[in-house]
């Protein structure tokens, strides 16, 4: 099965961000959206998730599909504890015992079980972001959509989180796609990297990473050719043309 958008148009006033834009994503791979700031990645993600209505075009997704969406900012409720923030997305879905188990399992994936009773204001920015990732895990959407989920996190923590996301993906196999500006993040976890330019957004290249995830952490040299390719593409996009 695939998630598909076809011939989508989306403008903000005179700015055409998506112009006759089409894309198909399957479940068997982790997809990464890469491209210069302002090219339209978030707009694309919002349109795909139904958060933003396109001006025209078709969104073809399986019926009643649920999105676990991680936004650029954490969007936690300050008056609720960590566990309450995570449990919030489960209220309509499960009984109390299952909710508690699910919250615990999700917090454990992001290594925050010890902070379940803390309030957001008592946590660092990185910890708050991990809570928002745990919340997305707990919801168990059939789609895991992430807009720069690792922004501002230091390397070790990012790797732990990407490992957690990969583990979650192998367990649940949701459609998974994320936006990043960081080449190393893309190469660490993605199977397909879409390099975009714009606006209007266009696909410059799709890079298919052939190295198994299990080898990437300990053998970054295997990713070197991809890294050079991605760096060259990025430089050519961000350099002003003469
Ligand atoms: N609500 C809005 N109203 C007007 N213009 C907007 C709105 N949202 C986005 N834009 C503009 O549309 C373009 C695409 O924005 P978008 O956020 O989709 O890009 P992006 O690739 O995700 O950027 P970044 O990497 O910086 O987050 C940008 O020029 C942005 O300023």
TrEMBL record:
Q: Can the keyword Transport be found in this entry's annotation?
A: yes
Question: Which SUPFAM superfamilies does this one have?
Answer: P-loop containing nucleoside triphosphate hydrolases
Record keywords, A-Z: ATP-binding, Nucleotide-binding, Transport
Q: Highest taxon of the source?
A: Bacteria
Q: Which InterPro entries match?
A: AAA+_ATPase (IPR003593), ABC_transporter-like_ATP-bd (IPR003439), ABC_transporter-like_CS (IPR017871), ABC_transporter_ATP-bind (IPR050166), P-loop_NTPase (IPR027417)
Q: One of this protein's Pfam families, by short name?
A: ABC_tran
- Which residues, by range, are in coiled-coil regions? none
* An MF annotation (GO) of this entry: ATP binding
The question of whether Transport is a record keyword is answered with yes
Residue ranges constituting the ABC transporter domain according to the UniProt record? 3-223
- Name of the protein: ABC transporter ATP-binding protein
Organism source for this protein?
A: Petrocella atlantisensis
């Amino acid at each position: 099965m695939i998630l598909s958008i076809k011939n989508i148009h989306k403008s903000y006033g005179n700015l055409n961000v998506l112009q006759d834009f089409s894309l198909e994503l399957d479940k068997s791979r982790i997809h990464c959206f890469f491209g210069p700031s302002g090219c339209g990645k978030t707009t694309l993600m919002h349109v795909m998730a139904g958060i933003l209505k396109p001006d025209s075009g078709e969104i073809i997704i399986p019926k009643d599909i649920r999105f676990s969406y991680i936004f650029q900012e954490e969007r936690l409720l300050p008056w609720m504890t960590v566990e309450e923030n995570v449990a919030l997305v489960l209220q309509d879905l499960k009984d109390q015992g299952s909710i508690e188990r699910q919250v615990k399992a999700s917090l454990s994936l992001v290594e925050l079980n010890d902070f379940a009773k803390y309030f957001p204001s008592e946590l660092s920015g990185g910890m708050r972001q991990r809570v928002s990732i745990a919340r997305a895990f707990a919801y168990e959407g059939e789609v895991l959509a992430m807009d720069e989920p690792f922004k501002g996190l230091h390397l070790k923590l990012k790797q732990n989180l990407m490992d957690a996301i990969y583990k979650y993906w192998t367990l649940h196999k949701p459609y998974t796609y994320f936006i990043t500006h960081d080449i190393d993040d893309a190469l660490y976890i993605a199977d397909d990297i879409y390099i975009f330019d714009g606006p209007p957004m266009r696909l410059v290249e799709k890079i298919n990473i052939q190295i198994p995830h299990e080898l990437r952490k300990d053998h970054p040299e295997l990713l070197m050719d991809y890294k050079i390719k991605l760096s060259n593409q990025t430089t050519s996009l961000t350099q002003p043309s003469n």
